[in-house]
Each structure stands twice: as structure tokens, then as C-alpha cells.
Amino acid sequence: PKLSLFGDVQYRYTLFKSLLKRVDFNEHLSALNPKAGANYYVNSKNSIYFSFAHITKEPNRNDYKEYAKSRNNGAVFPKPEKLNDFELGWRYDTDRVKLNANLYYMLYKDQLIPTGDLNDRGYPIRRNCDGYRTGIEVDAKILLSAQWQWAPNISYSQNKNINYTIKDPNHPGELLNLGNTQTSFSPSWVAGNAFTFIPVENFHISLISKYVGEQYLSNENQDDAKLDSYLIHSLQLSYELLPKKVCKSILFTATGNNLLNKKYIPYGKYENNTPSYYPAAEANGIVGITLSF
């Protein structure tokens, strides 16, 4: 009664074939992705779990297209990325408090990571590199009262490339090993918070905050190609009608984003050793209606 085991396995097969005569590749990829783990129920409120998964994921269509377009300039054919994922977690569950804490270690072989550059259609250009991601995630949902809810979450991680190499600027045709570098577009700190007030049934007012730590635009970790951390706040109102006819639900929403009109930069690129930045919108809003049948 205190221990349960779980497991599953996926067989995955993909085919990428070029229909253009000038680009010759016909890639068949197959993979077996197993996962297994255990849950241990300490008591009615606390449980501990452990899981392991081995995952193989093929490159996406854009990775192959980018290779086809740039292979004459030295582009390398993309390999499938492979991952061994270890997770250890704790759950606390009561009527008023639900808490989850998760430790993870993800070891990658040929992980497809963004280089910092974008192609002519605005998609990230990626390359294979060994690496790892390890950290802790904590999230909770707390009922403060019948009308107030609190949902915080926070994560800290180390995201590293192992023996990252670039073309040696001083020795053409040779590679320069930069050692372990921080993976691009991978902040160490990410946090969120939501306070929700329910004045009447089916009407929710939520103040939502989001924090994202600093992150690099490229895997070379240049100080002049870095996005600063930012904290933004939004207000969301929602009201749901439950009609008996026509549809099951009508959800009205109104959201005010970036309430404090903060100027911040959530994304950028690093092309030809030059950083470019894409600022986010200042204070803005959106309204919507969602019908469920």
C-alpha cells in the first residue's frame, strides 16, 4: 500500500526526405524511449518519487532545412539528441496546501542548442553539443481562504555545454575548445507568482508576476551579448458562464500585461559577433471570449 511502480516505453520512427534534387538526404531515424520510476507514500499527505527516462529526439524540419541551405558553407548534418533524465521529488498534498519539489539531472548527448543566430525566416539556428541541465523546481498552490488563492513557483538550474568548440579565429581550419559554457537562452533563475481573488462564483481576478534571470545570447558567453533579468506584472480578469444550451461554457477574459510599463528585453540574437535585441511591448492589453462545446 505504500509503494507503487510505473513504467512505459515508446518506439519512435521518423523519416525526413528531401524533395529537391539539389539537396540529397533521406534520413530514417528510429528510437526506443523507456521510462520507469517509483512512488513511495510516506503518509496520507507526503509522498516521494524517483524516475529515470532515456529519450532520443530527432532534429526538427528547420534543422534539416538550415543544413541544406548552408552545407556549402561548412554546416554540419544535424544528429538526433539523446537524453538521460533522473528526477527525485516530494509532494505534499492537503485540502489547503499542495506543494511539489523536484530535483533533476538531465545529461545530454548531441543536444540541439540555439547558436544565438536566426535564419531568414526568424527561426533559431541550432547545433549539436553535449551538455547537462540540473536544478530544483518548487511550486505550490495555497488556499488562503474561500476567496483568496496563492500560487508561487521558483526554479534554479545550471545549464551547461560540455567542451563547447568554435572555429579558432587565430588558426583557420582548427577548432578552439572553450570548455564548459552556459547554454544560450537558459536563465538560471525563473520564478512566478499569482494571487487570485474570487469575489463571486466563476469570477477570478489574478495578479500575476514573472521573473526571468539574466541569460546569454550565444554559447560563447560574451558579456556584451547578454539579456538582463526582468520582473513584470500582469492583471487578469475572467468570468465563466455555464449556459444549459448551445455550449457548455463561455469564458470572458481581459488581461493587462506589463502593468508598470517596464522597458525590458526578453529576446535577441548574436550574428556575426554582433548582438541584436528585441524589446518587449510596454503596457498592453487583450480581451477574449472562449466557447467550449
Provide a concise account of the structure shown.
The protein is mainly β and 293 residues long. It contains one helix and 19 strands.
Give a structural overview:
This protein is mainly beta. Helices cover 3% and strands 63% of the residues. The chain has one helix at residues 61-70, and strands at 3-17, 26-41, 46-57, 81-93, 97-118, 124-143, 148-161, 165-167, 175-177, 181-182, 189-200, 203-212, 215-216, 226-227, 230-241, 249-257, 267-271, 274-278, 284-292. Strands 1, 2, 3, 4, 5, 6, 7, 10, 11, 12, 15, 16 and 19 form a 13-stranded antiparallel beta sheet that branches. The protein has a two-stranded antiparallel sheet with strand order 8-9. A two-stranded antiparallel ribbon has the order 13-14. The model has no long low-confidence stretch (mean pLDDT 93).
Largest sheet, in brief, is: 13 strands, antiparallel
Shape annotation:
globular
Percent of residues in β-strands: over 45%
Task: Give the termini separation.
Answer: 40 Å
Radius of gyration: 23 Å
